[in-house]
Amino acid sequence: MPGWLWVVIVIAALIIIGAIAATALRARRSRELQGRFGPEYDRVAADAPSKRQAEAELKARADRHDELDLRPLDPRDRDQYRGRWQDVQAKFVDDPDGAVQDADGLIQDVMRRRGYPVDDFDTRAADLSVDHPDVVENYRAAHGIAVARERGKAGTDELRHAIQHYRALFEVLVEQTDRAEARS
Known about the structure:
Elements: H1 3-37, H2 39-47, H3 51-67, H4 75-94, H5 96-114, H6 121-131, H7 136-150, H8 156-175, H9 179-183
């Protein structure tokens, strides 16, 4: 067999091995993102034009999140926020609109104290999705109801659901220890 044929065979084999390795790496990356983002992975994948773009979005969120200076709440702050949450729940009986507005503000206060940027809702939801993919959908639902409330299109039952959604996120933000705290 001529030498040039051996070179062609080796090059073809290297290309095939490279393609297999690249496919395996992409599959591994997908599994890692699915594991980290859980249901949020499926939501982003359904909204994105392609799986590659969805994964790029999630990777960008994770990279942005890694640059944040997130911190756990001080025990005094936790107690103060729990008291404020009790006030929100009590307010719901007489003023459901005000309670939903206060709940949204309280969530933003807790996030700010923990080190999350709170400039706009989409950024808040994206940042939360990295550490709390299981409850970020609650936050989106609560926010949607709060927006409907502002337009006068949410009844008391919807407002009650908003409070329940906010509570799920509140409990995670206030009670759960930060990853850095857990590593200490």
